[in-house]
Each structure stands twice: as structure tokens, then as C-alpha cells.
Amino acid sequence: MTVNLENSQVQESNGITFAKRATEEGSDGPASKRLKLDPNENSRDGSQSRPAERKRGVAPIKPEYIITASVTQDVVDDDAAEASIATNDAVNSKPDPRGEGKKGKNRKKQSGQNQNRSYGQHDDALRLCTTRAHTNEFSPRECKFGDRCNMCHDLRKYLKEGRRDDLETETFDGKCPVYEKYGKCASGWKCRFVKSHSKEVEHEDGRKELVLLQSTDSASLEADEDPDKRPGVVNIVSSDLKWDLARRKMKLEKSEAYIKWQEKDTELSRKFYNKKKDLENAENDAAELAELRAQFTDPPLKPSEKRKIYFGRETPVLAPLTTQGNLPFRRLCAELGAQVTYSEMAMGMPLVQGHKSEWALMKAHEAEIVPPRFTPGRDSVVRGYDNSKDLKFGAQISANQPWVAMKATEALTMSLPHLRLVDLNCGCPIDLVFQQGGGSALLDAPPKLEKMIRGMNAVSGEVPVTAKLRMGVKDGRPTATKLIERLAFGSPDFRDRLGAPGCAAITLHGRSRQQRYTKSADWSYIAECAALIKSYNEKKAALTDTNQQPDESTQTNSADSKMYFIGNGDCYSHVDYFDHIDNAKVDAVMIARGAMIKPWIFEEIEKGQYLDKSASERLGYIEKYVRYGLEAWGSDELGVGFTRRFLLEWLSFTHRYVPIGLLEHLPPSLNDRPPKYRGRNDLETLMASDNYKDWIKISEMFLGPAHPDFKFQPKHKSHSYEAEG
């Protein structure tokens, strides 16, 4: 591939593939004995060179590529990227602001949550009315606002004065990539490439009309379609449904019934516990306790039979990623081998209230609704599992109250036709979420968490329910083992009467909320939890009274209700992946930062080898991302702006990739930071830059010059600048 970069041609060869198996490249042993990429390379004196001792935290780059020996780059704070923890909270042994002032009115606004990041303005100077956007000049639809409409109705004026000139990038040759692929463009006249799918025709009477290069019938039909509809995109929820949710007209009958029962059951449990604790007379105690016990009732509905799911060695999982886990990125990862994907974390209350922004997170691409990879014949296969009915895409939600989690789950499972599972986030460290009782705050509220999972499982229909945890809230005080036992069996007070909560799988991130990303994930603790789950699965039937156990059909995954266990943290290569599978004994590994830095990690896992991607290959992935972004968000000014914004968010991670061919030692470490270095060519050097101006330069290769008012500020504190394009 040849790329023109500032009038200079950058020519490079294809990437080199290193077919070194995971079993041959363990990270154990002294650094001097680890694999050297160029074993035949000789030193100046003619003898074979020996790699220098590997330094902790420093990427072992070959000397010939190093510009500055010391690591001068700022250490990237990945906690800031995920949303940093406030300095004034209980986790850091400082006053908890939740109790300050009346309803928190005197509380200072927390910083570090990326709430005030501005991206400037990237819209047309004149806004074209939607009645004109998809029709030919002489065939507009009637505008229901008439003369009161404050948008532009003059198509020629809009094209001349209301928008920037068409994009004419070398990559797309001025042709709309959406129109070229699908034969129509959902952006219509607003498209930044509209010249490629429009023309001016002269009629017999001499009048000249601007027409889109698609039939009038199809243009009219498209104008009446949901504006959110895009080619290849599924799980699009209608505006009417969201409006019904906002006006509380959508009936969530299962949730309403279960919430009423759960509130009554909770009150009875409280009375029963207090009476049992206070009464001293054994005879009266027994009588009154028996009277209270008789008031307990069964839930109004039992869980439906769940669709069986599967996690295994061949199913690497893409983590739910805030901001970067958008549809184009998930689509790219799915094509590169990700077998399970998740939506970005959606807030439960806005979902229940029908907020458009939260429901937009539920959109998925067709590449995510195909069955995941599956190898029949393994011992871990779930009885009754039908791979043809499985799919990759699942939704993740956050909630701070059981009723919110239940209603959000029922709304999702009723409205989304393509949904593998609903995952409850119990690990989000964001201050705003934590202080309201959601995310990682649930780690310190086991009864509430159990109620959430039970309720979600009861109302989710055939869709399984899972949970994602952290080790605990505070460093040195892990609580995950107790939570896992509770999710596997239920609390001792409820398990005999209600059975297991019905959690199909648990994902554990090997860090606490308090822990920073400068510390490695604790895979020894993950392995300990994996061993516990294995023992729980083996003895679960013996711990539950079979006479009171829920029907087998209501339990997750199999007749004996076994849970899957997925580990998460610092996976950056196929070596890491298979090491965790084999040694930590997890069913699968969830990958987050490793996928953001090099999304082809899933391809490496599938092939079982390192892939030294050339700069032009990596640039090809960026081009794919841009194409997918324009398809998902539109090729108009707004869509181009969104695509540029999220591309820059991704580049703020992927520039940290150090090519395999530049390293002295394997495996690479996710937490290593390189000294200043040059690449094997100018393009590779450009893609390693941590300067935002170079990121914008890369975006302009595909999206042209940024809007004059466009601004970009990465999440990382170490790059806390405001960049104007």
C-alpha cells in the first residue's frame, strides 16, 4: 500500500508474521532467556548480540530504533480514560460526599469524570429541513410546520451557502462510501459526498432540477423511514416505543408484579429477622416466628426457560467499553475474531425513561448477531446448547435499585430482537455512578445485588442474565469470593425457599475500584475465584433442597445450573490469553485495553501466533473504521464529525502499540511504556506519535479538514489539552 503523506510517498512491505506458539513463549524465566526477535542479528564485533536485561515498565525496543533512551512520555492514566475516581471519597479514606448537605446540595462538583469535555460545533451553517433532505428538488414532501419551520427549504441555497464543500479525499476519490456500497445514501442531500450521487437534469420545458441518483419512489420511502435506520444495523428501537416509555405508557407487567412481591417479601424478612433477634421466650418465639413464616409467599412468576449460552477457549470476549465500545469499533473487532461483544454500559433509569441516547447504545451490526465460534465435543459444553440460536451481542446496564434493573431488563428483552444476554455492571468506578449506589458500589451491597439478579432473571424471558464484578471496592479487601458464592447459590436466608438467583455467568476484573491501572491485574485472585466456582458447580446440587429447588427449565445454561466464569485484566497477546485459560482455569478471557490498542489481538488468538502488522495494514484498519463510522452515523456533517471524534478517541489508545518487529523480547506487556523511538518508516513513526495534531492529520487522510469549530480533548489526564482541528 502506498500512502501520500505531506507530498512524500511512504512505501512499505507487508507485515511479518511470527509463528511462535504460546507454549513456546512463556513469560517465565529471566529476561535474558526470553525470545529475541532477530536471533541472527550480529553485533558490530561480529558476535551474536544479546538482548539487554528487560526493565520493568519499559518496552524493550531494539537499540537501533531508539531516539531517547529514557522514557520521557507522560504515563497514561487509564483510570482517567475509564473515568477517574474522585479524590474526595470514602474509597481513598477521605470524607464521603454522599452525606454532605441536604440531598448533596452543598457537595462540590466532582472532577475527572469527563463531564465537561467539549467537541465544539460540527454542523451545517444552514440546517436543511428533513422534508427536503431525501427528495428531488421538484418533489419535496410537505412540511407540517409550514412557514413556521426555521429550517432551510431552498435546496440550492443550502448547497451553495449552508454547507461546506464536498469532501475530495484521496482515499474515497470524492465518492460516497455508503452509496458505493449500498446503492443509496441515508444522508441524502446532506452527504459530504453528495456530488457523487446526484446530478442536475434538464426537463423538456427547460427547467433544471437537482435529483438524487436513486428512484423517486425509493427516495420517498426512505424519507418516511426511521432516521436512525442504517444499512446492516439491527436493534433499532422506534421513536414511538421510546415515547411510550417516556410517558409511562409501556406496560412492564412482569416487573411491576415482581417489584410488589419483592417489596412485601423484603418487609416480611425484616420483621422475621427482628422478631427472631428480639424475642427471648422460646415458646412465644416459635409461635410468632411460625406466624410470620406463614406469611411468606412464592414469587408471582418464575423465570422462563433460558436460551443456553456458551463461553469457551475459542470465544475471546470484547469488553463493554465506555465511549470506544461503539458500533463501528465492535464491528471491526468482530471481523477480526471477537466472539462475544457488549454494548457500552447503558444507565438503567434513562433506558426506562426512553432516552434516545441510551437506547442508541443498543444498536448492533449484522456481524454481531452471527453465532460465536464453537468447538463441539468439549466436556464444558452445556447440555441443550444450540449454537445456531446463539449470537455475539449482549447488552450491559447499570442500576442502583432492583426495580430499575428489572424494568430496564424487561424493556430491553421486549424491544430488542437480537440480544444474547443482559449483563449487570457491578464494577464501574465512575464517581457519579458509585455515589448513587450503582456500579462498583454494589460490591458492598450483596443483598441488593442478589435482589437485582433474581428480579432480572425473572423478567428477562429467554435471555440469560450475567454480572461483571471487580475484586472489591478497596485495595487489600477483596469481596468477590463471597459475592460469587451468593450469586451461585443465593443467601442462606433465601436459597432453600427461592433457589439460586439464576446468574448465567460472572466476569471478574482483577482489580479493585481503588486500584489504579499502574498496578497489574491480580490473576492469582481470579484463579482462586475460578477454583471456587468449579467447586460450587460440583457441589451445587447437594447444597440445595431438591424439593424446593426451582424447575430445571428456569435455571441458566444447564439442568444443574452451572455458571461460566470469565477473567478480565491486562490481556495483550495470545500468550496472555491461553496462559489465563490454562493456568487460571477461566472459561474465557475478556479483553478491554488490549483490544483498543491492537484490535487484531483476536486474530492472534485465533491463529495462535504474533502478527507484526505493518503501518499500512494498521492504516487499513483505520480506513475500515472510518467507513463503518460513516455507515453508522451518516456521511453528513454531523456524521463525519462523530466519526472523527470517535476515531481520535481510538487513536489516543492505538498509538501506544509498539510493533512486534521493533521489540527485543516477547511477550509484550500492556503496561510497558516505550522510550522515544522511530518506526521502520515514516508512516509507522507517525502512527506512534502521542501528539494530537498527528492524530488529526491521520483523520484528515480520510475525512478531510476538520470543521473550523471542531475541538477534541482525550479522556487521558496526561493529554489534557483542548485541540482545535
Can you lay out the helices and strands and say which pair or pack?
Blueprint: E1 2-5, E2 8-11, E3 16-18, E4 66-68, H1 78-82, H2 130-133, H3 155-161, H4 177-182, E5 198-202, E6 208-212, H5 216-224, E7 233-234, H6 239-246, H7 253-278, H8 282-294, E8 317-318, H9 327-336, E9 341-342, E10 346-347, H10 348-352, H11 356-360, E11 364-365, E12 393-398, H12 402-415, E13 422-426, H13 431-435, H14 446-459, E14 465-470, H15 480-489, H16 492-498, E15 503-509, H17 523-543, E16 564-568, H18 574-584, E17 588-591, H19 593-597, H20 601-607, E18 610-612, H21 615-633, H22 637-654, E19 676-677, H23 682-687, H24 692-703, E20 711-712, E21 723-724
Parallel strand pairs: 8-17, 9-12, 10-12, 12-13, 13-14, 14-15, 15-16, 16-17
Antiparallel strand pairs: 1-2, 3-18, 4-19, 5-6, 7-11, 20-21
Helix pairs in contact: 7-8, 7-12, 7-14, 9-21, 12-14, 15-17, 18-20, 21-22, 22-24
Task: Describe what this molecule looks like in 3D.
The protein has 725 residues and is an alpha/beta fold. The protein has three domains: 2-79 and 621-724, no CATH class; 130-240, no CATH class; 305-376 and 384-599, Alpha-Beta Barrel (TIM Barrel), CATH 3.20.20.70. The chain is 34% helix and 10% strand. It contains 24 helices and 21 strands. Strands 8, 9, 10, 12, 13, 14, 15, 16 and 17 form a nine-stranded parallel sheet that branches. The longest helix has 26 residues, at 253-278. 45% of the residues are buried.
